[in-house]
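[audit] Reproducing an earlier prediction to check determinism. Same input, same settings, fresh worker. If the tokens differ from the archived copy the diff job will pick it up downstream; this log only records the rerun itself.
[audit] input (301 residues):
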Amino acid sequence: MSKRLSLISAFVCCLIWGTTFIAQDTGMDEIGPFTFNGVRFLVGFLALVPFFLIIEKNKFFNEFNKDRRNFLYLSISIGIFLFLASALQQVALLYTDVANAAFFTIFYVPLVPFVLYILYRKKVHWSVWPSVLLCVVGGYLLTNFYDASVRKGDILVLICALFWSLHIIFIGQLVEKFDLPVTVGLIQTLIVSILSIFIGLVYETFTISNILSETYEILYAGVLSGGFAFVLQIYAQKNISPAPAAIIYSLEGVFATIAAWIILNQILNIDNILGCLFILGGVLLSQLMPELKRLSIDKPK
């Protein structure tokens, strides 16, 4: 896959994630967070099954047999990280508002290069650090966080950001060795669904009629976000390393703001617009500076 297609995949992924924030928040009117996530990711799993049968069934064993142990380790780890991140984010929405959740979630952007260095001593291009700063400042302006009070759910979102960063990093490790994005999507959605439904059955009221009352939110968050968006993320990271990828994913805040403006008729103020521009600037800086360096190296003397 070319770098251009990877970037398109990343942007579409961000668009879906950003608009899903609304469905995540409104989808818990009648059901608990673990029930919502359990059913949501089960729907995502079922939506991906036909694509696995059409696209990856024939090449699955060839890819899997390259290194079975490593594939299982990485894909199961990715599923567990996704479960922890999505569960913490969903529960946090019960105790904080969308603005706080969106702002603190964006902290996976600075965490990715930091965790990369801690785990693998992997250095990143210098442009990542100013890009991270632009994205965090942009997220601050975008969410109107300074008008909101800090709530106990915010600490859950901060922990959730750590697991999002690990999810991005481990996907980066997996796509270097295996070309099975739909298969990984199936594995991670199944893991999240099973763990979420188990906890939901133990601690929440699991009522079919209540679940059906959230059908539209579950379908949107399940099929598009829980299923296809995470597969697009894996496609995107085939040609984008984890730290710049995390910066691109911060665009979900921009798309969430635009969606709230269009769907919920929320007003965009000057700070929101500046926040969008800061994040866009961070994304462009992280992508263009390494390319300019590469072009200068490749330029004939």
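[audit] rerun output stored. Observation attached for the diff report: The chain has 14 helices and no strands.
[audit] end
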